[in-house]
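User: Reviewer 2 asked us to show a designed sequence for the structure in our supplementary figure. I'm pasting the structure tokens here. Could you produce the per-position amino acids so we can include them in the response letter?
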């Protein structure tokens, strides 16, 4: 119970009057936009503006490891973000705000932020741990929906 109390005291990050969960959803959207433009910058630098503005019918593999990693990190974000976004919306609509939704949403965003440089610099083991931590955040949101008694235990 002390752990949960500490999370409540220090983990209550809210911006613009939003709930913690919607603040984290906003941060995740910003992260996605940053990743999109970061990957696009490095991929376009390698393939050229003409390729970027063209139909991209013939796309050669990327030669730069960094461009490829940033591109794959962005696509990996897109694989998990819809789950996160829908879960945040569901927990809000259903009124399931709890320590699980707060902690899960913050864990997801923090792990996804950490994931980007780890992937970009080719840090394999820690990158996987960051991915698993983000997934744990999603699972916490699922638990808040499916196991409401657990979610309310620390509330």
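Assistant: Here is a per-position design you can include in the supplement:
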């Amino acid at each position: 119970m002390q752990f949960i109390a500490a999370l409540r005291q220090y983990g209550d990050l809210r911006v613009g009057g939003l709930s913690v969960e919607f603040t984290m959803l906003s941060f995740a959207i910003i992260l996605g936009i940053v990743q999109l433009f970061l990957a696009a910058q490095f991929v376009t630098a390698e393939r050229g503006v003409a390729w970027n503005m063209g139909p991209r019918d013939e796309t050669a593999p990327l030669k730069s490891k960094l461009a490829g990693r940033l591109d794959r990190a962005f696509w990996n974000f897109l694989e998990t973000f819809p789950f996160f976004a829908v879960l945040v919306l569901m927990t809000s609509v259903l009124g399931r705000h709890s320590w699980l939704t707060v902690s899960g949403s913050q864990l997801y965003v923090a792990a996804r932020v950490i994931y980007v440089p780890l992937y970009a610099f080719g840090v394999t083991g820690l990158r996987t741990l960051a991915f698993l931590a983000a997934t744990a955040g999603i699972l916490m949101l699922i638990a808040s929906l499916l196991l409401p008694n657990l979610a309310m235990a620390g509330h």
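For the response letter, you might also mention the following. The helical segments are 2-10, 20-47, 49-53, 65-93, 99-120, 124-146, 148-153. The mean pLDDT is 88.
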